[in-house]
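Students often ask what a 'structure token' actually looks like in practice. Rather than answer in the abstract, let us consider Tail protein, a protein of 325 residues. Its sequence is given first.
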Amino acid sequence: MPILITQQTRPDPGPSPERELATVTWTSGSGTETILSDWRQGYTLGAGAKGLGMPQYQLYLRESGALDGDVVTGVRAKARQIFLPIVVYGEDRAEALAKRALLADAFDPLEVNRGGEGVLTVAEPRTEPRRIRAYYVEGMEGSEGRDEAGWNWARFGITLHAAEPYWQGPEITRSWGAGISADPVFPLGVPPAYPLRARNVQTIGESVRVECPGDARSYPRWTISGPAASGVRFVNRDLGAEWRLDRPLQAGDVVVVDCHPRRRTVTLGETNLWPDLAPGAQLWPLVPGVNEIDMLLGDVGETTRVELSFVPLHKTAYAVRAGLS
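Now compare that with the structural description of the same chain:
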């Protein structure tokens, strides 16, 4: 008996979407911007980039004769090394050599040559870009081997050093007022301190929720405008940490408290207010996610304001489009 075989056809899936690639940009110490992933400008990023994911970590270990193994006493993220395989080319040899010279100027790490620390930016399609500050280390020495350079092209493996290992998102700023004209104020305690217990999220007070969209601890910069009584106190309930400023602020005074561990300053104009911090003060960071914060200020006025600015930090350069995380 004959067996009938019918031809099976698959439904047409339609046109495949065009593959979108990340845009990689280098901004030199002098502010010159070079797109490293755009062949139309003479630069492309080849396969094999490294250092865009998790940072490396260092474990601090202690050994004891009474224990097997060891004890981890501390962990820190190490400085980051980034490797970028870049191809440079031009319409002719003169253009290719000019592109190579421009790239050398852009990566120059010496400030005296109008170079210095630059910024590497990675922007995935339809996401916020992430940046990291870095110095050029090596890779453009100029090997002319058969697989490394030609008449109108050259291939480089550039190494960058990032002293701070985390990628930065766009800066976030929030501000709060005393809320005297619109919100009731409930004075607590005894003079001279009258902390506010206002519940409006845009009003200085207790249990203010601040969301940090990064996935690594980020460092706030507080700007406090007077007036306010001595004893201004900021508490991060999630960390159980706080700092207090034992100095009254007059109307017109603007105090800036920078909590970044590489800076950590408390200033009023040109005046150093570090000695006015209470003993044991901790200039705490923001943890990833929601932070519950108490902003306790007394004797406030209509001009009293608190402004928070911070840069979310991320462990990787890979931003995820909203709705896909």
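One point worth highlighting: The chain has two domains: 23-165, 172-313. Ask yourself how you might have guessed this from the sequence alone, and why that guess would often be unreliable.
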